[in-house]
Sequence to fold (154 residues):
Amino acid sequence: MIKLKSLKNIFIGYVVILVYGMVIFNRNLDFSWIVTGGIDRLNAMMADTTNLTLFATINRYLGVLDRPSGFGLFLYNVIGNMLILIPFGYFFPMVNKSVKKWWIFLLVALVFILCIEAMQYVSMSGSLDVDDVLLNLMGAMIGYLLCPAKEKAT
Fold:
């Protein structure tokens, strides 16, 4: 069995790689909005990459499944957004024994995901998408359900 300290190190490494991959990797960080107009400038610059309508992005990818590259896009964007957070859901209850109830984990995962989305938004390194939040949360919950260390809420 892996020792708790090793497990915590693995989890911390995963989180660092996850944040790096979702916010920084292969992207240009841009904080110019701070000095060129503030939050109004940020909102204008991010308008094309912001989705606050639930299922809009998911439906867009479902709509291109019949195209040659559609299945790949669907896998990468929809399934990928779920898969990326499964390790978080699996390992978090192992390294944080105080999270024993599913709804507490759900809140922790939601805050974590919202922080990543906020970092992507303010650094203009990605999109702000409510569907990403939903899919990431589903992935985290799948990982949580697979985790042998959690105790089921009564």
Summary: The helical segments are 4-24, 38-45, 56-62, 70-83, 86-95, 102-122, 130-146. Residues 27 and 55 are 25 Å apart (CA to CA).
